[in-house]
Structures are given as structure tokens and as C-alpha cells.
Specification:
- By secondary structure, the protein is of the alpha+beta class.
- Helix content is about 50%, strand content about 20%.
- It is built from six helices and five strands, in the order H-H-E-H-E-E-H-H-E-E-H.
Length: about 150
């Protein structure tokens, strides 16, 4: 009986440990489409080339395995960036770059268009495994819900 109990506990811990340690392979283009399909953004966002997006984030364009960037016209702070990195360490580096971008944008919009600063204060930044996502949106709760649906 004791051996059976130990065996079942090992199985349960293995299953629980396996769940959530690494997200399933996420299609970041589908993630971006899903966030855009919702009502999170008040401005129309346009896609940007990966080289340009990486440059704006201060990320070496060779680091991401894949990336998606959508930017507003510049009148608002709204944007979406999604990265699939080659390693968790690279994802951590990119998360730092994303947070630095938010700080720089906050300083820029404080002078240019202060009404946009609250969007930057509520920016959604998510990192899971090799994935990093940023959404600066009018409705950060809607953006976060859409992103979280992909990270489950």
C-alpha cells in the first residue's frame, strides 16, 4: 500500500511539474491578430518590419526567432510587440529592453502628449519561457486577457 501511494504521489508531482513549466508553442502572429481583433486599442496600429521593430526596442535583430511589431501613428503610445526568442535567457534580455522602451516612451509622451502616459503606466508585459509580449493599449485589461489566453 505504501509503495502504491508513493508511486501515485510521484506521478501526480510529475504531471503537476510538467504543467506550466513551458508554454506550448505559440504562434505570435496569431497572438497579435487575437489582441488586435479585440477592443483593446483606440488607435489603428500598422505592422512594422522586424528590423525596424528590433531597432526601436534596442534588440539585436538576430536574437529573436520570430517577432511581430504593430505601432500607432505616433499620436498615441499604443503598440504591440511579440517576440519568440531562441532561449529563456534571451527572453529575459528582451523583457528588460521592453521595460526600458516603456520608460523611454513614458518620458517622451510626458512632454508630447501627457494624456497617453496612463496607457504606458498600465502596459501589459508578459514573459513565459522564450516568449515576451508587450501591449500598450487603451484597454489594458482586454489586451491582457487576450495575451493570457495564449499563455495558458
Amino acid at each position: 500500500m505504501k509503495k502504491t501511494l508513493v508511486f501515485f504521489l510521484i506521478i501526480i508531482f510529475a504531471v503537476l511539474y510538467g504543467c506550466g513549466t513551458k508554454p506550448a508553442d505559440i504562434d505570435i502572429s496569431s497572438l497579435a491578430d487575437s489582441v488586435m481583433a479585440g477592443s483593446a486599442f483606440s488607435d489603428e496600429l500598422a505592422p512594422a518590419d522586424s528590423q525596424i521593430g528590433c531597432y526601436l526596442y534596442g534588440v539585436d535583430p538576430a536574437l529573436p526567432e520570430n517577432s511581430v511589431f504593430l505601432f500607432s501613428s505616433g499620436a498615441t503610445a499604443e503598440e504591440l510587440a511579440a517576440f519568440k526568442m531562441r532561449s529563456a535567457a534571451d527572453a529575459e534580455t528582451v523583457e528588460t529592453a521592453v521595460r526600458e522602451r516603456i520608460s523611454a516612451q513614458r518620458a517622451s509622451f510626458a512632454d508630447y502628449n501627457p494624456d497617453e502616459v496612463p496607457k504606458l503606466d498600465r502596459a501589459v508585459v508578459k514573459r513565459s519561457g522564450v516568449y515576451v509580449v508587450l501591449c500598450v493599449a487603451a484597454d489594458s485589461s482586454a489586451a491582457e486577457s487576450a495575451v493570457d489566453a495564449f499563455f495558458r
